[in-house]
Design goal:
Length: 332
């Protein structure tokens, strides 16, 4: 496995897989998106260092229920989740901040913590290193192997020499279009062994009012997060987007069972993306689609797992059934 070693000290190693593919990936993805009939930018490019910080702030907003609700589930069942997992790697895809993983590590207890290695996987180098160092201070016997990577691309490069609990928390699975979702989950299933388990979060379908409020917060943080992708394109591809000339739009598409986020042009404009040798024109009120946040039903999740050769061993919900954590394993 080809890797770039970023950091190696006692109990922590950080390796990168992003540098080899990021430049070509963003160029290809953005060119394809900005030349489509419905222009779009893949939401994974939200998460530079600034974007990661903004999203972390969003998670504390009163309107943004997913993180708060998922945390309530973890607080209630963390010991139950971790008890059968005796040792191995805890692989967190899209690791971000440490709040959720700390609940699981606390449930392990100091007497067992040395039996585990934490493997955070995140595209943001700064966020991954900072959170890893914080965990090492909190858990003196924990070992960390950080992987700076796009987990949709480098999934097969992750360590698999020990039993793994692969965790994919938040509602990130909802950011995939249906075909991409099936492809990604198929890859996860293909990498799993009978000793592995996959803990994944699902945001469940609920009232439209509640869903739309979560993505249109009164402080404007989600708007700033949405527009941050334009800053990324300006920096990485020498584009000349002016984020102030766009309006943040988010709504629940009931037919598709998903929240959609868009950037809507306030006026007619012409945008130059120098590194792509591309010029695009936007009419007033035309949108660039930046993110989907699919919502799920119990029946849909069961069908999806079965189609992938997985089964739900355990399923955890909050009191309102607004969010769920499903533990998936390979079918016998």
């Amino acid at each position: 496995m080809s890797k770039e070693l970023i950091l190696k000290k006692e109990r922590i190693e950080v390796r990168s897989r992003v540098a080899q593919t990021y430049s070509s990936s963003i160029a290809t993805d953005v060119y394809r998106g900005l030349t489509a009939s419905q222009k779009y930018i893949p939401s994974k490019y939200f998460y530079d260092d600034r974007g990661s910080r903004l999203f972390d702030e969003i998670c504390y907003l009163p309107e943004y229920y997913p993180t708060r609700t998922e945390m309530s589930i973890l607080d209630s069942v963390a010991s139950e989740i971790m008890a059968p997992f005796g040792e191995g790697d805890i692989v967190e895809l899209g690791s971000g901040a440490n709040r959720k993983i700390r609940v699981l590590l606390d449930a392990v207890g100091p007497e067992r913590i040395s039996s585990f290695r934490y493997v955070p996987v995140d595209v943001s180098e700064a966020a991954l290193i900072a959170s890893s160092k914080e965990l090492l201070e909190l858990y003196p016997d924990l070992e960390v192997l950080g992987i700076i990577a796009d987990f949709t691309v480098h999934l097969k490069d992750l360590p698999s020499d020990r039993p793994r609990m692969i965790i994919f928390l938040g509602s990130t699975i909802g950011n995939f279009h249906e075909r991409e979702r099936k492809k990604f989950l198929s890859l996860v299933a293909e990498t799993m062994t009978p000793d592995d388990r996959f803990l994944i979060g699902f945001d469940m379908i609920k009232q439209k009012k509640t869903l739309e409020a979560a993505y249109n917060d009164s402080q404007g943080l989600t708007s700033a997060f949405n527009k941050n992708v334009l800053h990324v394109l300006n920096r990485e591809l020498k584009a000349d987007f002016n984020p102030t000339e766009f309006k943040h739009v988010a709504f629940f598409n009931e037919e598709m069972e998903r929240v959609e986020m868009h950037l809507q042009a306030k006026e007619d404009m012409e945008i130059r993306v120098k590194d792509l040798d591309l010029t695009i024109e936007l009419e007033k009120d035309e949108t660039i689609h930046t993110e989907i946040c699919a919502k799920f039903s119990r029946e849909g999740i069961k069908r999806m797992a079965a189609d992938l050769g997985l089964e739900i061993r355990r399923w955890f919900f909050d009191e309102k059934a607004w969010f769920s954590l499903a533990e998936l394993v390979l079918k016998d």
